Model the fold of this input.
Amino acid sequence: MAEQDKGTAVVIGGGIAGLATAALLSAEGWTVTVLEARDELGGRAGSWEHEGFRFDTGPSWYLMPEVFDHFFRMLGTSAADELDLVRLDPAYRVYTDPSMSADAPIDVRTGRAEATALFESIEPGAGAKLDAYLDSAADAYELSVSRFLYDTYETTAGLRDPQLLKRAGQLAPLLTKTLAGYVDKRFTDQRLRQILEYPAVFLGGSPYGVPSLYHLMSHLDLDDGVLYPRGGFVEVIRAVERLARAHGASIRTGAEVVEITTTDAVATGVRLSDGTRIPADLVVSTADLHHTETTLLPPELQTYPQKWWDKRVPSPGALLLLLGVEGELPQLAHHTLLFASKWRENFEDIFDAPTRISDPASLYICRPSATDDDVAPAGSENLFVLVPVPADPGIGHGGVDGDGDPAVETAADHVIQQISQWCGIPDLAERITVRRTIAPGDFETDLHSWRGNSLGLAHTLGQSAVFRPRNASRKVRNLSYAGTSALPGIGLPMCLISAELVLKRLRGDRSPGPLAEPARV
Done:
């Protein structure tokens, strides 16, 4: 074996975490094979093309750009070289229920001066409060990146660092109070509260359930900025795939893994649905962690058996609408949020009332055609609509052109009507030429997603940082994990870090920060 040859590795799953893991391991000297069950790569960050429209079917907010930059630099390139990034202005637009108030939509622009001026214009005194809030958010973000996100937690040394312990008094209330409690204490206007609390959804949680440490999210959209990769988020997937292949990884689609093979509690490879066995010195599963643990491994080798999952909180499910619309839609920004007046009740519907879809709902619309000419035919618009719903596959399956489960299609009809009424687009329904719905049942069937959830384990206090599943099995040697339910968590940047944590473990690097970057090549 050549000195640089580390051995053979199989990566289960061709989403962002799997491709990133493959790229890093291949660059490290492993001979890597990626096995993706579906016919296309991307996983939750998938893509769908129909009648000249190209839709992202998952993530649509490009946040934490320094994480992407760091990942690409580790592979000898840069985000600027791999992606065509555009800064959005406004970062997003907010509509509120017109039946409750006549408030005009709010355009939220990135930048401390713009954000504080906006808050001050809505609620006197809120500008100065937001300035202090964003100072705290930036500090919490820096602390998270330098101390928490890149830690494998193989030891508690990082948590016992004297510099961190000095800040225990500052951290304690941020961990024990909810985000909603933290925000509501400082701001009165409901719209401002909603702007600061909605990012909890990006973490797969409710502002009434995630710790207030996650107010750091407001640093990303209000201070740092929101970017968009021209061509859509499929271009991020293609960039990471390109790097994995360039470093020697082999990538196979239509290859469903049905078993992680073991001998004496050591991973030896995988078995595919057609019976093929692929041996490996290292197995990394980036498939849904619940599926990996409870289906691909026997009970005696499960670190996280079903009884463990029975006590955990999933992220919300999602009702997705992919809509091709004839004509322009200037009423919508690239990112638009609709906030219902029954804010807390919306979250109770999601987390406490299985199968109930709020109506009206707080929802999110992405109109990438506002920025990108390549995602819709000339003269048409591309809309991606996300409605957080309970994580329950019983809600049903979606379909194309209204042929999904009746309850799903009826809910979609109500969402289209809500957008039409709230955003002043009276003929929206009549202008739709392409329609596809995706529901929790599809997440369960297509992605083996636990309870049909859309993002992974929610970022409650008991499911964050040191309390989140590790990146390696405790019962099977040479079996590692990456992806949304493992450390560090939900979202594309977190998945890139998750892949890096696999490499850190293999190197024996227990430092709390990111790996050193090689020189550009």
Q: What stands out?
A: The mean pLDDT is 94. Residues 126-148 form the longest helix (23 residues).
